[in-house]
Write a structure and sequence with these properties.
Elements: H1 16-28, E1 36-38, E2 41-42, E3 47-51, E4 55-61, E5 70-75, E6 78-85, E7 105-112, E8 123-127, E9 130-136
Length: 149
């Protein structure tokens, strides 16, 4: 006796769920594939901005960047961080690349700060590829407690 197997024409198709999973995986699981826009141009500088009662703290990862390659400016409440990472062309060409993922080129990021800062007392430290900006708030923007009587 032989077994009868029914043929389902949709069994080889992709379900909507599988198609959506694949789309999200392509867009979110590999978000850095399109960081390089054109030759020598980078797209995005990721920042962390936190706030205490007295100051704002801005942190960014800048691997391979030297302090003299970074320009930081504050105009009003706008913070701009820009710079350029150069590619070392001094390597001997002993073969072809299998992966070439390190970013080179110019970058710039401008954000609006959540409080007014004292630019004269601001500090910027670039150590081990981590940029840390300490921006003291001006006296008028610090929160003040008012005692209710």
């Amino acid at each position: 006796m032989s077994n009868l197997i029914l043929w389902d024409p949709h069994s080889r198709g992709v379900s909507l769920r599988e198609a959506m999973n694949r789309m999200f995986e392509e867009s979110f699981m590999r978000p850095f594939d399109d960081w390089m826009l054109a030759e020598g141009e980078m797209n995005h500088l990721a920042l962390d901005v936190s706030e205490t009662e007295d100051e704002l703290l801005v942190e960014a990862s800048l691997p391979g960047i030297h302090p003299e390659e970074v320009d930081i400016s504050i105009v009003g409440n706008s913070l701009t961080i820009k710079g350029e990472s150069t590619h070392e062309e001094e390597r001997e060409e002993k073969g072809r690349y299998h992966y070439h993922e390190r970013r080179y080129g110019s970058f710039q990021r401008t954000i609006t700060l959540p409080a007014e800062v004292n630019t004269d007392a601001a500090k910027a430290i670039l150590k081990n590829g981590e940029l840390r900006l300490v921006l003291p708030k001006v006296e008028e923007t610090k929160s003040k407690r008012i005692k209710v009587t």
